[in-house]
């Protein structure tokens, strides 16, 4: 079956229509089909079409001025060989349920193709996931590494449900500033400790980390003392931020997690801001990292985060902070 390439568009004649009707290739145009570069390359590679004057290699070279053509072709080929019907748009590809095709079924996934060095722009990512959700599709990132290996990630916007636990009431108390942390005198049966705050220095003293201290000061549970004088929330935030430029961001996400009844503790050992406990479990369920909504993180950083979370059986969430609230974005590797 012949297809014509005029330097910009690849078309088939009437004999190409079965490619669309039977297998969902191309878009009908007149009596024939219009093929995307990925479709034409795949069909030529599988020897289902001929393009006069071009081999697979030379046609690939014609499209080489498009910087994404290699990785897009690799993803398209992989999805096709997994048994999916794939069409271009509205992101990079829309992927139909196995056994279904255009006109006789619905697409299941909307796929965005990236390289391992591409940045994740959280604001754009959130917009695309919302658009996919409004179309009742799953949003997938297909990432191609430098050795042409593919990894698929499902992206979800998580609305935190309230954790199924009841924390004890906290009694207002004083704390003494010690460096950037604070020390609280407690009894053996400390309500602060039961609520998941602080770390014991000894049987009589509990040390509060800056993000915990900010939360408790904001709620009016802790009055912070610096010597004989009290210290305001703003004064302490300015002091603690001198050595932690992310503290305001972390405080915002920490407060939101606490608002839903979760218990966040430092996630330093996992390379993230928080490990988060749900209910009374002795093991944390989530890893959470706070970012600005306008932030851009390399895909390689996201990959390491997801791999770490998976290895310790936790979900990986990024808390994207913006003026109207926090959007929690979950990244998870999937097999299609």
Describe the model.
With 336 residues, the chain is α+β, with helices and mostly antiparallel strands. Among the domains are: 156 residues, 3-Layer(aba) Sandwich (Trna Endonuclease, Chain: A, domain 1), CATH 3.40.1350.150; 79 residues, 3-Layer(aba) Sandwich (MutS, DNA mismatch repair protein, domain I), CATH 3.40.1170.20. The protein has a ten-stranded mixed beta sheet, sandwiched between helices. A six-stranded mixed beta sheet has the order 13-14-12-11-15-16. It starts with a strand and ends with a strand. The mean pLDDT is 93. Keywords: Endonuclease, Hydrolase, Nuclease. This is tRNA intron endonuclease. Pfam families: tRNA_int_endo, tRNA_int_endo_N. One of its GO terms (molecular function) is tRNA-intron lyase activity.
Any idea of the CATH topology of the domain at 3-158?
Trna Endonuclease, Chain: A, domain 1
CATH A-level architecture of the domain at 3-158: 3-Layer(aba) Sandwich
How far is the N terminus from the C terminus?
31 Å
Q: Given the structure, what is the number of helices?
A: 10
Strand line-up of the largest beta sheet: 5-6-7-9-10-22-21-19-18-17
Counting helices, strands and paired strands, the structural category is: alpha+beta
Computed CA radius of gyration, to the nearest angstrom: 27 Å
Shape: elongated
**Oligomer status:** single chain
Keywords: Endonuclease, Hydrolase, Nuclease
Domain tRNA intron endonuclease catalytic: 71-152, 249-325
Pfam families: tRNA_int_endo, tRNA_int_endo_N
Domain tRNA intron endonuclease N-terminal: 5-56, 176-237
């Amino acid at each position: 079956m012949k297809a014509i390439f005029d330097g910009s568009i690849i078309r088939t004649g009437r004999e190409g229509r079965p490619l669309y009707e039977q297998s969902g290739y191309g878009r009908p145009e007149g009596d024939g089909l219009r093929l995307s570069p990925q479709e034409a390359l795949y069909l030529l590679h599988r020897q289902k079409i001929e393009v006069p004057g071009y081999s697979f290699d030379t046609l690939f070279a014609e499209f080489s001025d498009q910087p994404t053509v290699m990785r897009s072709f690799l993803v398209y080929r992989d999805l096709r060989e997994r048994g999916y019907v794939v069409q271009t748009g509205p992101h990079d590809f829309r992927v139909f349920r196995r056994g279904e095709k255009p006109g006789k079924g619905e697409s299941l996934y909307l796929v965005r193709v990236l390289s391992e060095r591409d940045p994740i722009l959280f604001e754009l990512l959130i917009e695309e996931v919302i658009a996919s959700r409004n179309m009742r599709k799953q949003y997938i990132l297909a990432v191609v590494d430098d050795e042409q290996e593919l990894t698929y990630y499902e992206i979800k916007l998580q609305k935190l449900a309230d954790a199924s636990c009841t924390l004890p009431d906290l009694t207002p108390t004083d704390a003494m500033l010690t460096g950037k942390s604070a020390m609280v005198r407690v009894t053996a049966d400390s309500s602060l400790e039961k609520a998941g705050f602080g770390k014991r220095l000894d049987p009589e003293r509990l040390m509060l980390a800056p993000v915990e201290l900010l939360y408790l000061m904001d709620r009016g549970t802790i009055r912070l003392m610096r010597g004989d004088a009290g210290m305001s929330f703003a004064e302490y935030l300015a002091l603690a931020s001198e050595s932690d430029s992310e503290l305001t961001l972390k405080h915002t996400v920490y407060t939101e997690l606490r608002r839903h009844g979760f218990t966040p503790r430092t996630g330093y050992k996992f390379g993230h801001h928080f490990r988060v406990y749900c209910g009374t479990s002795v093991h944390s369920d989530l890893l959470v990292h706070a970012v600005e909504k306008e932030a851009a993180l390399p895909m390689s950083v996201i990959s390491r985060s997801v791999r770490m979370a998976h290895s310790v059986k936790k979900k990986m969430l990024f808390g994207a902070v913006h003026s109207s609230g926090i959007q929690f974005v979950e990244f998870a590797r999937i097999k299609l």
